[in-house]
Amino acid sequence: MKRTKTLWVFLLVGFFAINTARAQTFSEWWRQKKAQKKYLLQQIAALQVYIGYARKGYSIAKDGLNFIGDLKNGEMNLHADYFRSLGKVNPHIREYAKIGDIIALEYRMAGDYSQILKQLRQSDAFNKDELDYFVRVFGKTLDFFSDTLDELIAVSTDGHLEMTDDARLERIDLLYKRMTEHYTFFRVFRMECTLLAMARLREEEDTRTSRLLYNLKQ
C-alpha cells in the first residue's frame, strides 16, 4: 500500500508538471500497445475458461481444448500447452479461489481502461497534453497488470517455477495483494479524472450562463 501511495503522489506531481514534458500522442502509444493488449486479453480469456473448468471439477481434455479454441469466433489463439501443463499442478493450487479473483480484476480493468479513455477524450474537458498524460498513466497500470498475470501463469503452471505448494500459495497471495493495490489506484485515478472533467465542464457552463445574463442586462 505504501508503494501505491508513493506512485499516486508521483503521478499527481507529473500531472501538474505536464506542460514541461514532451507528450507522447495517443495514437503513437496505442500502436505500440495494441499487440500487447490483444495478447493480454487472450491470456485473460484463456485463464477465465480454465477457472470455470477447475471450479466445476471438469477435467481438461482434447474436446475441452477444441471448445476453448472456438471462443470469440476463432479470434482467440489460446494456449493449449498451458492447459495441458495445468493438469500437472496440484489441484489445491489450481483451484485456489484467489486465482479466479485475480483474473476477475484483470478482466474488469481491461474493460474499464477502454471505457475511461473514451469518456475522457469525448468530454472535451482536457487538452492534448493532458490526454496524453492520462494515456501514459493508464498504460503504466496496464503494464503492472500484465506483469502480474505473467507471474500468475508462471506460479500456477508446472515446469515454469520449481516451488513447493506452500510457496505457490504464498506467491499467489502476494500477487492478489499487488493486484488489488493496483486496481485501487486505477479506480481512484479514474475517479479523479472524471471529477476534474465534471468540474471543468461545470465551470464552462457557469461562464456561459454568466455571459448570457450579462448580455441580457445590457
TrEMBL record:
Keywords in UniProt for this one?
Signal
At the top level, the lineage of the source is: Bacteria
Signal peptide as annotated in the record: 1-23
Specify the protein name: TerB family tellurite resistance protein
Q: Native species of this protein? A: Sinomicrobium weinanense
| Species lineage | Bacteria, Pseudomonadati, Bacteroidota, Flavobacteriia, Flavobacteriales
